């Protein structure tokens, strides 16, 4: 088994274990709906990991959890459907038997047929495409991972992020997600990990800060008013990455 294949299969095994461990958790209000994309969109996620978790990648980007029109649909971090099909060249069907029993009418799960755009995904992958042109070039340099594989919604369909959970349910969720993140980083040994947003950054500092350098980039979410301008400029993000690496005495190669 090649190092590329071995790494991908290990990550898939760790993620599969995580998903199984999370099934027993119950989340109190305001959580009314819970989606697990790594169960029903597992074939798409498998293709993503097997194709793009490459041993040459030295940078890791860590997002928070699935967005309603991205990973919730495609099983891929920030997985805007158009990007998944046209840039990743990934196709596949959902496992209908694994779909959640309760689906919010405002948040249907349509897989790669979803007509909505994932703004966060368009911004992040749009930036990557500016610099590396092809997905193969980008993933030879970096990998993208979502810390928590679950999506939470209120009774109105409003997105609830892991940092908005409270009490025992949150701590139990984070404890399990920490294990998988640690396994990934211990295997990958990236020279630098960037948390996308404050929550992901703090998690990375707490869980893997003793293994590798950790930095933060603004989350590409539309909820962040400065995000659109920041992620639309390739050089702005690239210079931020360079500067954070320089402060840690780490040299990385970027396209230009």
From TrEMBL:
Span of domain Uracil-DNA glycosylase-like: 54-227
SUPFAM superfamilies attached to this UniProt entry: Uracil-DNA glycosylase-like
Gene3D superfamilies for this protein: Uracil-DNA glycosylase-like domain
BP GO annotations: base-excision repair
Family: Belongs to the uracil-DNA glycosylase (UDG) superfamily. SMUG1 family.
Any matching Pfam family: UDG
Organism: Galdieria sulphuraria (Red alga)
Protein name (database record): Single-strand selective monofunctional uracil DNA glycosylase
GO cellular component annotations of the record: nucleus
């Amino acid at each position: 088994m090649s190092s590329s294949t071995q790494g991908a299969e290990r990550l898939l095994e760790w993620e599969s274990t995580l998903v199984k461990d999370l099934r027993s958790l119950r989340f109190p209000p305001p959580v009314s709906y819970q989606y697990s994309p790594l169960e029903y969109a597992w074939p798409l996620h498998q293709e993503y990991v097997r194709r793009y978790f490459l041993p040459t990648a030295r940078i890791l980007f860590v997002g928070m959890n699935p967005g309603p029109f991205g990973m919730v649909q495609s099983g891929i971090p920030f997985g805007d459907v158009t990007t998944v099909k046209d840039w990743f060249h990934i196709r596949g069907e959902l496992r209908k038997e694994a779909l959640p029993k309760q689906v919010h009418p405002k948040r249907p799960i349509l897989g790669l047929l979803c007509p909505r755009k994932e703004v966060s995904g368009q911004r992040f992958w749009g930036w990557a495409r500016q610099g590396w042109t092809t997905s193969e070039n980008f993933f030879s340099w970096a990998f993208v991972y979502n810390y928590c594989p679950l999506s939470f919604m209120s009774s109105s369909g409003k997105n609830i992020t892991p940092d908005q959970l409270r009490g025992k349910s949150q701590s139990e969720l984070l404890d399990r997600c920490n294990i998988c993140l640690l396994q990934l980083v211990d295997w990958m040994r990236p020279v630098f990990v960037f948390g996308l947003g404050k929550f992901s950054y703090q998690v990375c500092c707490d869980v893997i800060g003793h293994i590798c350098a950790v930095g933060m980039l603004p989350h590409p979410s539309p909820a962040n008013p400065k995000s659109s301008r920041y992620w639309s400029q390739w050089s702005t993000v690239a210079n931020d990455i360079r500067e954070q690496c320089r402060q840690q005495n780490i040299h990385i190669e970027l396209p230009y």
